[in-house]
Specification:
- The protein contains eleven helices and nine strands.
- It is α+β, with helices and mostly antiparallel strands and 298 residues long.
- Helix 3 runs antiparallel to helix 4, helix 5 packs across helix 8 and helix 9 crosses helix 10.
């Protein structure tokens, strides 16, 4: 199967859907691995990042075209839009943390020294004490995600930051250990960086390509390696920002449309409905009826 033909999932095995900007989820490694005979076939997620703690066992991880063997204790970091798959040793144990791109970006904006953890795939060795600490924090996060109560958002953020700090320190200690790991395609990474600065302008792909110093065809070919088009990546970022504003602001639909680059409110509503399956106001009401901050499948 070509990289462009890789399946895209929400969580592995679940149909792809638009990710809530505040999505956080933790589950056991065994939950999805055992039903597939300890194999997770290569796939990718458009807007989700993983931190995977391997407490016992091991296996092989495929990052893009490279396969890396590992043994516990180990921490795997899988940024969004990276093709990945696993062959686990039987009875491996661990925990899988998943966080939406928008939520992660917001945390990194406030703590930029943690951002390097997600700039490429990682396969980090852990000491026993670090493994226990990260496992305890992930278990605490599962508890916070299982209910709605006073201070939940703060507790979830504190747990996430604790995990990121522990992982970043493990990265720092690993030194040259990351030299075997593949980098994101440079052009696609630069495109994502440019989008963060300019997606509200609703510029054409030709303008993005010219700004990046390449042809539109070259940009399309680079994005095709991760199974997406430049237009789809741009529109996904627009939708995620619109959802964040619908969920966490009192702005009108027209104001939100203008904030993400649409002068015509009706055109924005049609665009949002086509991408999300319901109009902006209906989506906002649906969010109000569900958990106000996070989701968990535990």
């Amino acid at each position: 199967m070509s990289e462009a033909g890789l399946p895209h999932y929400f969580l592995y095995g679940e149909p792809e859907e638009t990710v809530r900007p505040d999505f956080v989820h933790v589950e056991s490694l065994e939950h999805r691995s055992m039903p597939g005979d300890w194999t997770i076939r290569p796939h990718m997620h458009g807007d989700l990042n993983h931190i995977i703690l391997i407490a016992d066992g091991g296996g092989d991880i495929r990052y893009e075209a490279e396969t890396i063997p590992f043994e516990a204790p180990r921490l795997l970091v899988v940024p969004a839009r990276i093709a990945h798959g696993f062959d686990w040793h039987r009875e491996s144990r661990g925990l899988v943390l998943t966080i939406a791109d928008v939520h992660l970006s917001q945390l990194v904006q406030h703590h930029p020294d943690l951002g390097q953890l997600f700039d490429r795939p990682r396969c980090l060795p852990l000491g026993t004490a670090d493994c226990r600490q990260i496992a305890a924090t992930m278990q605490a996060l599962i508890g916070e995600l299982s209910w709605i109560g006073l201070g939940q958002a703060a507790a979830v953020e504190a747990a996430l930051l604790g995990i990121f700090v522990s992982a970043s320190r493990a990265l720092e200690r690993s030194g040259a250990a990351s030299s075997r790991e593949p980098r994101k395609p440079d052009l696609v990474a630069r495109y994502h960086e440019l989008l963060e600065q300019r997606f509200r302008l609703r510029e054409s792909i030709d303008i993005y390509a010219r700004t990046l110093g390449v042809s539109p065809t070259t940009l399309r070919e680079a994005c095709a390696v991760i199974g997406q088009s430049p237009t789809r990546i741009r529109d996904h970022r627009t939708i995620l920002e619109a959802q964040r504003l619908l969920a966490y602001s009192a702005l009108t639909v027209a104001e939100i449309g203008e904030a993400v680059g649409f002068e015509d409110p009706a055109y924005f509503s049609r665009f949002f409905s086509r991408k999300c399956g319901q109009p902006p106001n209906a989506w906002r009401e649906t969010v109000k009826l569900s958990s106000p901050h996070t989701q968990s499948l535990e």
